[in-house]
Amino acid sequence: MGTTTEIREARDWQGRLLDCSGCERLAELAQGRCRLGHACAHDRYARRIDRFFRWNPHLAKEYLGHPYFETRAVAAKYVEVFHLPRLIADPDETVRQSVAQRLPLRSRHLRALGRDPHREVRIRVAERLELRDLAAMIGDPDYYVRQIVARRLPATMLVRMLHDPDREVRKVVARRVGAEWLHTMARDPELDVRLEAIRRMDDGQLKHYREDSDWRVRYEVASRLDPAELGPMRADSDAAVRELVEQRLAGARGADVLPEAC
């Protein structure tokens, strides 16, 4: 329940002091379903607006045209879903985000929001779209939206994202794309992407990267390659790689010398 100060200083979205005497919700006030400074559709604070609609979800549809965007956004959380399409063109992205979080997955309106001008709306859409519709967002202009797409798409469809312009997106692709495409990712200009691909390779693939230009790739290769394939790396140009190779070769030789049975 709001404190005396909160009640006395409760204000609407335009900064005006709230006064219940002229409110259209006097019936709810009388029934204890709203409370100044605690649960009010006209308060400027979203948590108080949310509390009002949580107590009175049946009233949410009456506020979808309210001038305050927070009121519309919160009302969209509680209104029946068939009212949501009227808000997909709302001028405020917070409202459209709220709509994107609730529209049915197969709704054409949800797919339409995948082209919304605001990235936060498209992020919500990318997190929810059915996989069959998600491919339409592969070319989204925002890197984070594409990261979500790369995390959710079936691995067989990630070929279309092998050369995404953003390094972080390509790292996600390298972690998930089919093994037959790892060689492509291992030739990426960014070290982080190459390493993601190298870490997934088997011995047959790894041996092709014993001479990679970056010592960190060669170190990863040396740490996992079958010892029988490590010989050429004993002369590696990097001391850390050479040391690792010798350690692994020594370990392999030691494993071949079994103690005699007592």
What count of helical segments does DSSP give? 15
Bulk shape = elongated
Rg calculated over all Cα atoms? 29 Å
Strand content: under 5%
Distance between the first and last residues' Cα: 79 Å
Helix-strand makeup class: mainly alpha
Low-confidence stretches: none
Which whole number gives the mean pLDDT? Answer: 93
State the share of residues found in helices, binned by percent.
40-55%
How many strands appear in the DSSP assignment?
Answer: 0
Structural description of this entry:
By secondary structure, this protein is an all-alpha fold. It is built from 15 helices and no strands. It has a domain at 1-62. It has helices spanning 4-9, 26-30, 46-55, 69-78, 93-100, 108-113, 119-128, 131-134, 143-152, 167-176, 182-185, 191-198, 203-206, 215-224, 239-256. The termini are far apart. The model has no long low-confidence stretch (mean pLDDT 93).
Keywords:
mainly alpha; 15 helices; 262 residues; 47% helix; elongated
List the helices and strands and how they pair.
Elements: H1 4-9, H2 26-30, H3 46-55, H4 69-78, H5 93-100, H6 108-113, H7 119-128, H8 131-134, H9 143-152, H10 167-176, H11 182-185, H12 191-198, H13 203-206, H14 215-224, H15 239-256
Helix pairs in contact: 3-4, 4-5, 5-7, 7-9, 9-10, 10-12, 12-14, 14-15
